[in-house]
UniProtKB/TrEMBL annotation, chain A:
Lineage: Bacteria, Bacillati, Actinomycetota, Actinomycetes, Micrococcales
Superkingdom of origin organism: Bacteria
Name by which UniProt lists this protein: Xylose transport system permease protein XylH
Function: Part of the binding-protein-dependent transport system for D-xylose. Probably responsible for the translocation of the substrate across the membrane.
Topology with respect to the bilayer: Multi-pass membrane protein
UniProtKB/TrEMBL annotation, chain B:
Organism superkingdom: Bacteria
SMART domains: AAA (SM00382)
Organism: Demequina mangrovi
InterPro entries: AAA+_ATPase (IPR003593), ABC_carbohydrate_import_ATPase (IPR050107), ABC_transporter-like_ATP-bd (IPR003439), ABC_transporter-like_CS (IPR017871), L-arabinose_ABC_transporter (IPR053466), P-loop_NTPase (IPR027417)
Name assigned to this protein: Monosaccharide ABC transporter ATP-binding protein, CUT2 family
Domain ABC transporter, chain residue ranges per copy: 6-244, 263-509
Signal sequence, start to end: none
Predominant location category: membrane
Compartments, as annotated in UniProt: Cell membrane
Taxonomic path: Bacteria, Bacillati, Actinomycetota, Actinomycetes, Micrococcales
Xref: Gene3D superfamilies: P-loop containing nucleotide triphosphate hydrolases
Alphabetized UniProt keyword annotations: ATP-binding, Cell membrane, Membrane, Nucleotide-binding, Repeat, Sugar transport, Translocase, Transport
Amino acid sequence: MTGTANIRELITRNIRTSGIYLAFIAIIAVFAIWTDGKLLSPGNVTNLVLQYSYILILAIGMVMVIIAGHIDLSVGSVVAFTGAVSAVVVIRHDMPWWVGVLAALGVGSLIGAWQGFWVAFVGIPAFITTLSGMLLFRGLTWVTLDNISLSPFPAEYQNIANGFFNGVLGGNGYDVFTLVVFAIALLGYFYSTYRTRRSRIAYEQPVEAFPLFIVKLVVVSFVVMWFAWQLANARGLPFVLIILAALIIIYSLVTQRTVFGRHVYAIGGNLSAAMLSGVKVKWVNFGVMLNMGILASVAGVVFSSRMNSAQPSAGNMFELDAIAACFIGGAAVTGGVGRVTGAMVGGLIMAVMSNGMSLLGVDQSMVQIVKGLVLLLAVAFDVYNKRRAGAR
Amino acid sequence: MPKHILEMRKITKTFPGVKALSAVELSVIDGEIHGICGENGAGKSTLMKVLSGVYPHGTYEGDIVYDGEVQQFHSIPDSERQGIVIIHQELALIPYLSVAENIFLGNERRGKNGMIDWNLTNHEAAKLLEQVGLHENPLTPVNQLGVGKQQLIEIAKALSKDVRLLILDEPTAALNDDDSEHLLELLRSLKARGITSIMISHKLNEIEEICDRTTIIRDGHSIETIDIAEGGGNQDRIIRGMVGRDLTNRYPKREHVVGDEVFRVEDWTVYHPTQPGRVVVDNATFSVRKGEVIGIAGVMGAGRTELAMSIFGRSYGRDITGRTYLHGEEIRIRDVSEAISHGLAYATEDRKRYGLNLIEDVRRNISAAALFKLAKRGWVDGNKEIKVAEEYRASMNIKTPSVMQTVGNLSGGNQQKVVLSKWIYSDAEVLILDEPTRGIDVGAKYEIYTIINRLVAAGKAVIIISSELPELLGTCDRIYTLAFGVVTGELPVAEATQEKLMTLMTQEKASTTTMDKEARA
């Protein structure tokens, strides 16, 4: 009798934490079947990465903003503005490509500091500050570009979002280098999960049964290497994937392992308790907004590079995609909960759905409707879970 | 035989695990002012919530006989329809709405077409204001008025509902002397108009001044009903009734080894953060020595929490003046992280709102105030954190299946142990524990007292804020009493009795700061 209760508990607990991954797999499976496998073709997988990388970069910063209990509506405009600054520097003033990148990052930091100042030190709600920023930076984009689009970028700049490592170790119809990089990453993952497991056992913490652990590793290896194989069979390893992977690893560590990251969770979880525990709430909020500005400028560079131009209307509605990614990925509307990996999966769910539907030739208006409903259902699921937890 | 407007017969109310009221009897004569006295947590507010329908019929045992009939209130509107209106200690006015809008909120005066008739509303509001002696324009937003006037608006609101039995929970706790006097005068005039009142109050002189009779409640039992008019020694009798329980062996024994002074506060004055000119803590001075437990005794609203939080990194109040000394040297504490680095800790009375991140696990709550001890160059050592959490789980006997358990799922006593673990791990030298045993059961209380004994045995200095006098007498070496923001006394525990403390706690001592202000004015 207790046995069944335990199994039931195990299942419900796992659905709550890994429900998002199951949903992701289900969505991939459904669209793969509907598109006769086109969704998972090498060309399309590569395309997915290139096309949604900037949303995912934005979602990394956004999830931290949301964990701290804020929101940022300005990131779309910041993407446009930083891209415009970079284009003016590189295209109009003929500077080298990296000067454009640095200029964009510098402007992004200034914007982050500006919004952080108002949110953290003056105490204007982030919703208002960034709503203002959304208008402000869109306007500045138009001024910077004289309301026309600027193109083309030099080849080096274009490579940021459109370049690949291919044939570094020679090719046999597929790129060996891509496979090697992924294999090394996988070994690193094995090592770190093994170490975590070892130390958890050493500290007498619960771990999953050993066979389950092995099964998990095998499944992960299979998925990762399949993904690598698809990339290797298309154009090789995209540069932007390396940027994205580095950001995901860095920010996962920052949120989970640093004092700063832990303070972000503390503020979102219970602001008063965080204050009375000595957390410098103002500086943490400032840091979160500053970081969002910087990541938005990274997205600005990637997007302008991908488009090979800076456009007055660039980045329109990006903020909503980034916010939706965080909430679908399990971040709580009230703050204090959320993960970088969750936001990435949330973003990929949106990406696979949009991409899958456009492969099927579904009308763009329908895509919007479905995305809207998915967001609503994801948050409803979160609210429902929380109410059940609260009822206990 | 006088006519009773209200009889509450054998009222018993149980919450999961706690019997809040057991067979409480209360009878109120038509047209009298009836006082209710008791310590915090004695069950006064619970009794009034039963009466007003907050706890609906069926969730308690016993009968409410009102106007000669047994009543079954299912909600507040049910009791209000019968003319029973309760005014809570925390006023329930909407700050940005006008006086008139507040008076008729939920009871709007409508015209023929169903829309609000503003002329009628404002006209009637003006008449009601006249009755309570408040000379304000009914169109004034409520937040422009002081607490005393807001209290009168609450009464006007009650009058608009044709009140027959008015219940006031600590009506004068937040008022100054003039406003209090005015309010009491108003209650007398309402009495002359035949309105019966029930007044919960800690101010015994007020009870004696205005009430016809008073009922004493202690630990969920009604002790006795005193006829004030009979005269003579009422306050002493009330105090005896309020605190009269025996100190049994509920407090673990402790060796008293007191060393040098560790922490001292001098001339500490704090103003209310939003109400300009209101003094919350008035020239408080106290000190605590190594290995010593001191108590700060005061009723709710005496400024205890405000005193503690203002010291702890200026977390409360404005225009804070005064000095703090650590080991005889003056220290300036500008924010909480400085307070922590000076070795201060403050465990809040409201652990759910201010003490814990309820959606986070035990481990991370324990490390929350001292992450710097686990971190090297900003990186937290997660394994060490688990080890620390496990150590505290064992040493503090925190009952949880795992340190990864969400704190919100623990019982009150175990949550309190998590709070204490957090502050002990921060290496605090001076621990201010605000109501450390509020809302936890007797067994867990004993454990908390044992932990406090361990702390002082290890040379820490502990300050306990409590309104439970037996708790202070059972755990402290010295006790300060705080009344209306003023330190009214300091007693070694050997000389302290509950009666003496209660007298000091309810004493209104002339406030030095307000006197200064009047002199200047």
